[in-house]
Design goal:
single chain; alpha/beta; Rossmann fold; 2 domains; six-stranded parallel β-sheet; 15 helices; 14 strands
């Protein structure tokens, strides 16, 4: 089976959870004798006036990266690109795949399923985050860093998204409203045309369904996005606490609560009793150093950025062997939490925020304990309890469940692929014809947006 995997980024250039899941899925498909082709967006601009396609091989896998020429193509108002749509359709005509699997639209275009339908190719969609229900993806208020529970509504969502640079003062409210409506209509059509919709957890499906009218939590399929093979890790033997050695890896950012963990480690009630080892990439250069400067009392050792496979060898594996617990302080309601499986593969019991997939996939007292998400006091109290009870730390370590196996992930995807192939490409489901004027209008709107940004005062952009 030839499958095109469309995703917003791909290793080694982009190393987020969905990107790593795409790599793992492509590996598994190739190993099973299928023919995956990765179509990836890129954070690197084209460097010219037209779309640039860059073909390469990553671990023997064919990867075609789409580099967009326009400005700020991550912005929600730039979620459609006629250049990408055309190039994607060209690729489908050339490669003649059996199936398209859209893992994300960001940095590509929000009409990939429609493009596949126009070429007679059935498509599967994975909803691994909240992008379809939030212009800013994560449903976190940019100022308060609290979880947003509001339904999608044009004016309030546009106002919230406007807090994040670049602001768009050259776009009138009417223009932003039209773009918001277009985005919602296009994504609704994508989900209608998809032959199967996959989600990484039931809690994520229910959360999406609360915010998006055209998602039915009972009609989607729960398929883990990534699995881990068997690992031959040596037995963990951390020295007796204190200090209680905590290990946190992944993206280092406010969204993932890295600052909350550092602040908790600096709390006077934990003075000298907790030590944190951090590994991962900062959300922006200097961010971590700023947090360490704010909370100087915290005992933190930063091990640097890493690739996923680095966790299980070298200095990072040694850090895991020397640690008592893995900690996530993520403010986001995680859709699957890949780090949970990585921690389990390392034999680490976990301290987790009580929300999202963490609550669904872990149980109190079975290799995990919980605290109130985003609540500093609750996190400090949870850590203080563990510091005071070394026997509980050992008991949790003895009950760590196994991670999701790779075979289960592959089987779930192949079942969805077979069902989609049996259903065939969508017919009479709202596949609109190509209008002769659509391309010209889209390119003009894109050019006007970029021109407005260039002509704006930098201070007005935030």
């Amino acid at each position: 089976m030839k499958i095109v995997l469309a995703v917003h980024g791909f290793p080694p250039a982009e190393l987020g959870g969905t990107e790593q899941s795409a790599l793992g899925l492509a590996r598994a498909l190739a190993a099973a004798g299928h023919d995956p082709i990765v179509v990836a967006g890129s954070s690197e601009p084209a460097g010219g006036d037209d779309l640039r396609l860059e073909e390469s091989h990553v671990e023997g896998l064919r990867v075609v990266r789409f580099h967009r020429p326009d400005l700020y193509f991550d912005h929600w108002q730039k979620s459609r690109s006629v250049r990408v749509s055309e190039a994607f359709r060209d690729l489908l005509r050339r490669e003649q795949p059996d199936l398209v699997h859209v893992l994300h639209w960001l940095r590509l275009s929000r009409d990939l399923v429609l493009s596949a339908a126009r070429e007679g190719v059935p498509a599967v969609v994975s909803l691994n985050d909240l992008w379809t229900s939030c212009p800013l993806t994560f449903r976190l208020d940019p100022k308060t860093r609290t979880v947003c529970h509001k339904p999608l509504a044009a004016v309030q969502c546009i106002s919230c998204a406007g807090q994040v640079p670049p602001r768009t003062p050259w776009v009138p409210l009417e223009g932003a409203l039209l773009e918001f409506a277009g985005r919602e209509a296009d994504l609704a059509r994508e989900l209608k045309l998809a032959r199967r919709i996959l989600v990484p957890s039931r809690s994520h499906a229910e959360r999406l369904a609360r915010f998006v009218d055209h998602i039915d939590a009972d009609a989607v399929s729960v398929v883990a996005p990534r699995g881990l093979g068997a690992l031959a890790m040596p037995a963990r033997c951390p020295a007796a606490a204190p200090p209680l050695r905590l290990y946190a890896f992944g993206s280092l950012s406010a969204l993932k609560g890295t600052d909350l963990l550092i602040e908790a480690a600096a709390d006077a009630r934990l003075a000298g009793a907790v030590e944190v080892q951090l590994a991962g990439r900062e959300e922006q250069p200097g961010w971590l150093q700023n947090q360490l400067a704010r909370f100087r009392a915290a005992r933190v050792n930063y091990l640097g950025p890493y690739a996923a496979e680095d966790l299980f060898g070298g200095a990072l594996a040694r850090a895991a062997l020397d640690s008592h617990l893995f900690v996530s302080a993520s403010r986001a309601p995680e859709s699957f939490a890949l780090v949970l499986d990585e921690a389990r593969a390392l034999g680490l019991a976990c301290v987790l925020p009580a929300q999202g997939a963490f609550l669904e996939r872990a149980s109190e007292g079975v290799g995990a304990t919980f605290f109130e998400a985003g609540n500093l006091e609750s996190l400090v109290q949870a850590l203080a309890r563990l510091v005071a009870d070394p026997a509980e730390v050992k008991r949790l370590a003895a009950t760590v469940p196994a991670p999701v196996p790779e075979q289960e992930v592959l089987a779930g995807h192949l079942a969805a692929y077979d069902e989609s192939l049996a259903a065939g490409p969508p017919e009479n489901l709202g596949v609109p014809p190509d209008e002769w004027y659509a391309r010209r209008m889209a390119l003009f709107a894109e050019a006007e947006w970029d021109r407005g940004l260039r002509q704006s005062d930098p201070g007005a952009l935030g």
